[in-house]
Write a structure and sequence with these properties.
single chain, 205 residues, alpha+beta, 3 domains, two-stranded antiparallel sheet, 5 helices
């Protein structure tokens, strides 16, 4: 009896330890995904400072948005530090993997973004431009992850298709075309005759 209790206690203790370490590891990885896009501006001298980042699959998995399956992007940030103001010039270049609206296959679409972000310090008491944010005076760093995510999505075209229609999945296009034709054929039948046709088919069977 005592042996059985000892075994149960051991497995319970061992399972809890595994759960703790797995949870800590998983949460740590999630934090690290966004932490790498931190800019520690506190202590920087006034003037120009350059930061480079890379965006890959784990970035899009973190935000869990089905529009973009993955991507390979580079981010160049030129930060100009002035008294009471940060000016960031942000350039994003690379490709993202999207689903083609024409044939439903996934393809790599080039993506380019050039923009500015201004950071002021103090209390936000007035309506600001969408490219201007206000941070508290005692803030030491700025995390760009959410901004980069939004810039990438703003850069996506409304129509997302292979640049050349020849690159589309021909078999899928054929199937979609047949499906569309069948739908149009069904809709074109006068509803007054549709019931009669169905009755005739049942009689033949």
């Amino acid at each position: 009896m005592y042996v059985l209790q000892a075994i149960i206690t051991f497995f319970f203790f061992y399972s809890n330890i595994n759960f703790y370490f797995c949870t800590a590891f998983f949460e740590g990885n999630i934090v690290n995904v966004t932490a790498k896009y931190n800019i520690p501006f506190f202590g920087l001298k006034e003037g120009k400072h350059v930061f480079d980042f890379e965006i890959e699959r784990e970035f899009f998995e973190y935000y869990n948005n089905p529009e973009i399956e993955t991507g390979e992007l580079t981010v160049n940030v030129e930060l100009y530090k002035q008294p009471g103001l940060l000016e960031l010039g942000i350039i994003i270049r690379g490709t993202v993997k999207l689903q083609c609206d024409r044939c439903l296959d996934y393809f790599n679409m080039p993506l380019n973004y050039d923009g500015k972000l201004y950071v002021k310090f103090g209390e936000e008491k007035e309506d600001l431009d969408e490219n201007v944010i206000v941070l508290k005076e005692n803030t030491h760093s700025l995390n760009l992850a959410q901004f980069l995510y939004e810039y990438i999505h703003l850069s996506l075209p409304y129509k997302r298709v292979h640049r050349d229609a020849k690159d589309c999945n021909k078999e899928m296009l054929k199937r979609l075309g047949e499906h569309s034709f069948n739908e149009e054929s069904t809709e074109s039948i006068d509803p007054r005759w549709k019931g009669l046709n169905e009755l005739n088919n049942e009689t033949k069977n």
